[in-house]
Amino acid sequence: MDFIDYYKVLGVSKTATQDEIRAAYRKLARKHHPDLNPNDKEANKKFQQINEANEVLSDPEKRKKYDQYGKDWQHAEAFEKAQQEAGRQSRRGAGRNPFSGSEGGGGTFTSEDFEQGDGGFSDFFESLFGGSGRRSAGGNARFRGQDYQAELQLSLTEAAATHQRVLTVNGKNIRITIPAGVANGQVIKLKGHGAPGANGGPDGDLYITFIIGDDPRWTREGNDLRTDAPLDLYTAVLGGESTVETLNGKVKLKIKPGTANGTTVRLKGKGFPVYKEEGKYGDLYVHLEIQIPTNLTEKEKELFRQLQHLRQ
């Protein structure tokens, strides 16, 4: 897999603060969002890279591993566990494979760690242990297969719609249906899709963690969404309508005369779909930000002065 420099993707330095990373992400995500660049495959690819970079660099722990291990950062935990186990085995002088052992295996690894090579271990572990991971524990004992851990990244709009994805594990394609309303960090288990068991033992399971990227338009709070919407001064004073973007398209929002800056309006049922409860949705909260007109002509300024005198 080619190495992607997440810092270059977001256009920030390696010493960037979390605020700088967040600001860079929002700016780029808005620019390359698929909804704003329909049928542009390059923009869609860029958008995915931006989300991936933000997901790693905005998390202090993941960022630390990325800075230390580069493209192999996702294997950091497994690598460190393997080093510790290898050290213990070396001290015992047993020479036992650090990845064999009791039921469930000797550690938790991502699906990438097992999907290469005829022995089940990736080149990453091959380079660490020189192929020692290929040796079996021996004997006739039945061992349960290793569980796999994988992450699946979704955009907010993808998480809002039920859809199918095809995952490739150990050379096999697995089609899964992702229900609308899945939460960031939610984990699902696919029974029997982990590593094969040994000597007739049961196969392990595949655990998928969903990572849902931030969206520049909406902020999710459970099943509710929040968004900021500009409102011109004249509509705020006189009342009227304002167009607001929702997950299902644009809607007209009625504005009462004399609406104050910072007013929050609730649109019932226009939020995020409730997980596995078809037809149920949260609410959308719209924070109105009144836009003060600029570059006024002299005539416009005079009219404002007249209005000012009338109000005194």
Structural commentary:
- Helix 2 (18-32) runs antiparallel to helix 3 (41-57).
- The strands form 4 sheets. This protein has a 4-stranded mixed beta sheet with strand order 1-2-6-5. It has a 4-stranded mixed beta sheet with strand order 7-8-12-11. The chain has a two-stranded antiparallel sheet with strand order 3-4.
- The protein has 312 residues and is α/β, with parallel strands linked by helices.
- It contains 9 helices and 12 strands.
- Residues 93-139 have low confidence and may be disordered.
- It has helices spanning 6-10, 18-32, 41-57, 60-69, 76-92, 123-129, 156-159, 233-238, 298-311; strands at residues 109-110, 148-154, 163-169, 172-178, 187-190, 206-212, 219-221, 224-232, 240-246, 249-255, 264-267, 284-291.
Q: What's the structural blueprint in terms of helices and strands?
A:
Layout: H1 6-10, H2 18-32, H3 41-57, H4 60-69, H5 76-92, E1 109-110, H6 123-129, E2 148-154, H7 156-159, E3 163-169, E4 172-178, E5 187-190, E6 206-212, E7 219-221, E8 224-232, H8 233-238, E9 240-246, E10 249-255, E11 264-267, E12 284-291, H9 298-311
Parallel strand pairs: 1-2, 2-6, 8-12
Antiparallel strand pairs: 3-4, 5-6, 7-8, 9-10, 11-12
Helix pairs in contact: 2-3
